[in-house]
Structure formats: structure tokens, C-alpha cells
């Protein structure tokens, strides 16, 4: 694509692929993906159908604030005695209740992780080493052939210092701030930066 095509996105057809988006949008999605990985990868690995997995979930739900509400929201109406028996492993819940316990656990874990953005910031800052960012260029198959650029490729940068602001912008839904942050990231690409204002995907190595 020509320089004009980057400045006025879609001039030569790049907007015909809905996967081609502004970097601020792709960055927000990448941050959400990183957050989801924190929720799932840091959670209990044993299935709720095992004694160990059930007890671990019940301990979490009975020792963290909001646990009883999470159980109720998931449809668990068991008595306090039954909840204690499940937590001790003395009794096993029916399959429907086991599924509801699993739902309650993941919902509560997600809420607790989302309420602590500092953990994601620390993860991305990586003790000052930052996080690798993979930048995938727009899909040019939809671009007018004469305006395509053959030299666009996936770029990889080790990005530092922006993560506190990026997580805050995501939490606040501040797209303008994410756009400014993305401009800072692609500035590292020197003269090529304009070609990565819009991208098809951003991946975080975190």
C-alpha cells in the first residue's frame, strides 16, 4: 500500500477484511488475552470431578470474599453442612452441583484477577525486561494489487515501560490512550512505523 493508504485507512481496500484493525484495538485484544491466560493458567488444574479438584475449589470459594455469592449465582443452594462436607471431601456433589461449583470458582477467580490489575502489570513488566510483542501486518489480499507492499512482514519487539499505562487504559476503556501507546510502540520501527498503524493481529509473549 502507498503512504496515502496508511494515512487514510481503506483507501485501497484494506478495510474489506474485518480482521484488519487499528493497533489500539489489536493491543486491547492482546491485553485481554493475556488477562484471560492469567485467569486460567494460574487457576486450579485438577478437574472438579476429582476429589482434589473439588476440595481446592471449595476451599477457594469458602475462604475468599464473595465465595458464597458466587455459589448462589451459579445455582448452588446446598446447606452449610453440605458445603463443609464437600470442602472436606467427605461427600461428593451431584454432577449438576459439581458443574455449578466449577462455574462459581472460575467466575470468582476472574473477578479477583480483574480487581487486581497490578498483577497483570507486574507480569508484563517482567522485572524490567518487558514483554515480546509480535506485530502481524494487515492482510493485503483485499488491497488493490498495485498498492500492495511485498516487504511487510511480522515484526517482533521487546517492549518495556508502557505496560502500566496500557493496563490502566484497558481497564478504563480509554481508546485514545491505547492509540497513543500504540504510536509509541511502533515508533521503534523507524520509517516503517506507518505501515503498522493498522494490523491483523498482535501477540504478547506473556
UniProtKB/TrEMBL annotation:
Organism from which the protein derives: Yinghuangia aomiensis
Stated name of the protein: Transcriptional regulator
